[in-house]
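$ fold --in a.seq
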Amino acid sequence: MKSPKKKFPLGRSSFKKVMEGNFYFADKSMLIHDVIENENEVLLFPRPRRFGKTLNLSMLRYFFEKTKPEHTHLFEGLAIQHQETWTHQGTYPVIYLTLKDVKGKKWENCFNLMKLIISDEYTRHHYLIEANILKTNEKKFFESIMNRDANEEEFALSLRKLSEFLLRYHSKSVVILCDEYDSPIHDGYFNGYYDQVIQFMRAFLGSAFKDNDALFKGVLTGILRIARESIFSELNNLDVFSVLSEKFSHYFGITQEEVNQVLIDYELTDHQETIRKCYDGYQFGKNIIYNPWSVTHYFADPDVGYRSYWINTSANYFVKELIFNKQFLKISEIQDLIDGKVVWKELNENIVMKDLKLFRDAVWSLLLFSGYLTAVDRRRIPNKNRDKKQYEYCLKLPNIEILDYFDYEMKRYLKSGERFEDSQAESKQRKKVFISYNHNDINFVKALKKDLENADIHLIIDIESMKFGDDIKEFIEASVKHSDITLSVISENSLKSPWVMLESLETFLHEDVEKKLRFIPVVIDDCYLTNSFYSKFVNSIEQSIDKIADEISKLTKKYLPTDVLDEKKRRLITLRSNTDKILLRLQETLVANFMNDQKYEKNLPQLIRLLKQ
């Protein structure tokens, strides 16, 4: 007689309940071993919602936590029991927080829920008050957190303080686990309190994970990797493993091997093709991953057939708001994905939520990390004069479940003529930006052009707008006239170029007439700031003028035309006459400093915001 098959743990994310309830569990316990063996103290795992993050974090909790009764029995028969790291089981004090429900229309609502979560964890460790290890002021602090009477600044430091108290009591460093750390941040972005929640989370998480002598390991999960400058400032002990990372890639979601085993154990091999087409398609690192929420629900009732399980567990607010409402991406590219095509995009793993409307690559990244897209390939791209390798990724819709959702939203969108009209009106209001540069700086300009176009900036640039046979002077005058901003790339090459100087002078003229900002210098080298630059520069121009004058004289004696040389001489004389004006303008103007990689990354968002004002 066959033993009864285990039930699937639908909607259950407590490791203890899954194991004690004898539910089906795909053994992910080697995650524990790899977390311990990882050299960094703090690990962040960004994964889509309902891909096993909470269950894995619960497993870590029950492994590490020093409790009575012990939890050894939960790991009976799992792979971790046979590792040397098994000696860590049940030996650490643990702080466990889940922020998935910390949300609200206002910061006050969100913060009240945050206080409740922190208060509950302090209450779980209330024995610290009775242990006579806290000083009088520390006991008052502990009680104020438990009673939710503490102020915002005290709550911001509460995670670190609790770890210090636990170390003092147990004489053992602490494991801090934080599930869905970015949930309050998403809600803050869409409800208008992003800056407040970022400020709190920076202190709350930063103080706990940075230079904390009480910390053994910290593990965070979420959907996105929020940029270090937003939260994890100077946190150099953080290791991030996203869906693009190879390491840890098989611990979240269900692998092909695990699906195959279920199909055999439950005699469902005839359902293999349906499951593959509907719920497969994700690629984490080099591993093919199935959506665990949809797959387990399908396995639980296979006779029902295909259903959209995962997509129906959320309002899918990100997709509706960013694509179909605010149209941060080109609708034509979304249609290409629906039609089964792929798109190649440069991704940004460090997402600053408030910059989503500035950078299209951030929105593509958000869709990938949220589980609406998958990356199936990558290729090198020009490295923008930077040392680090740059890649763009081949993105596609992973499966039928996601395809059906996008197809449904697209049909709704196309029925709304108002949105199309609004999109056209918004396009007409976009500022036009003319890029002025010298062709010796073309590599930098191409990189800048790509980043600005990703931010939906309307550009005028000669490599695209100018055709063979066009008059250069007329092109310059027309470009400056019909643009709102001249973005002048400043380098030694451009300062010595009469054409670039003509573009700057033409912009100055329009500024004087219109009385508004039109000239923005983007500096890629600061040669013009040296004391000797002006004299050397003027001498060089004068020498060039003298050489041309000599050539003109020789041609005149031979009764040959000198029109070309006359025009070249005239441009150089104009450059010579206005050099002091241009250099003075640069010295008096707050320039956009793009002289190295760090400055580029830091100042690009600020430049984009200025161009979009």
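$ fold --in b.seq
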Amino acid sequence: MADGGEAPGIALRLRVGVSGHRQLTAAHPGLVSEISKAVEYISEKLAVTPDIPLTVVSSLAEGADRLVADGVLDRDGARLEVVLPLPPDDYSTDFDTEESKTAFSLLLARDDRYDLVRTATSREHAYELAGRAVVDRSDVMIIIWDGAPPRGRGGTAEIREYALRSHRPVVWILVTADEARLVIDELPRAAEGTLPLNAANLQKLDRYNGEPTAADEAGEPPLRGLADTRPWLASAMPMIEHVHRYYVRADQVADRQQKRFRLMNRLLYVLAPLAVLIVAAQVVFAPSRQYLAWFEFGVLAVLTVLHLIARRAGWHARWISARYLAEQLRSQTFLGLTGILTIVTGAASGQREDEVSWTERAAAEVWLTRPRFDPPADPSLLVDVLYKHWIKDQQVYHRDTSRKYRQRSTVFQALSVGLFSVSTVAALLHSLGAGGTAARPFKWWDFLAIVIPALAGALSGYAAQRDYSRHAERSRLFGGFLDRALERLLDSRDLDAIQQATLVISRSMRDEATEWYSSVHTQELELPA
């Protein structure tokens, strides 16, 4: 996958989550070999390509968690990603022996970005949240389970059910007292060759990673200027800069492809009425000069070729997918400040062949590889930054966008009505024979009666294609939602409440971006009628 220098491309890893019984050991009959088979099946069959690197996602509990972690980490290029239910010192008190505690510490040292459940109401709740977080950030789960019903909150059976509800492929190793066996009949064969993305979506990501970017246009990361006056933000800068580098690429790619698409779109709506103007002029003013029709043919040929070039280049799809990705990354900086554990799911959507699914998986990769940040002890510090530098900016943007698009819709409607009115007057004057005689009629009325409706149609078609009214209303409604959501954030008094409020806002922003994508997705270049 290509790299864009200062604005890096996104390199995916296949994330393998694990959940299983804690009492298991490497001495259990057949277990280690069955884990090896499960990892091999994932790498050789489920992976979109056999050479994609693996990351094992684990809470490093005793038993299955560590056995699978060891099995995956034996492979070249493999990494470990840890989600802890409790702070390490507290968590290690659950381990039976000093040897177990040492093994935990050695494995934890292999992940310098581990995540910690911060908002649990009890120890059991923390284990449940950690188990769900492992599922949320995994592309596939290895479940080592005896097949028995759930025995407690956050246990293996419950996490397996959560994984299935979340549409994660599950590779099940059945364990009994005297054996371990990969359950062949329940292998997720429908997911083979699709993880972490299917081949079509991986090609789209490779194309995006290969887009050129300009390092000198990266700009300053958000909040850098505040770090001098807010010391707690200084330690957040590695996380902020990490996200910003990926945002720069998405933003630059989106801007460039949008400009190309818009330019081509306007050319098509200019060339179509130009062809009508040429043929009208030839028919009305120079009917004997048949060679002038070749000019009309030339314009129509250019129009057709430009349309084919634009469709083949995929400027429209490349624009909206990069913009959709950029909007997801824009929120990550501020969500990272709150210490939220999981904001996006893994790659369950990566099997769909559309522009949304690969961007969601790519955004998840950026989030999961970010440097971690511990939020400040005073929640009011977070609320102030989230409001002034995230939500307020979005409020202003949507308010201005709604007003701008409403004005454009009004202008295009007025122009179209005005031109059709002029065309009507021209047709009336032509019918009355104004400006000419029976022997020598005034030909300009004929010309205008043909050309002006073509111009009006082109303007109406362009305005309809841009769908100004719909976008204006969408921004107006979302601006109203942000006003209401802000009240909830300002009323937050602890970290949990802040996290919940920001998650609601972030998900709504993502839903709004999805609605924008769905709307603009239908506005591909078409030849004007």
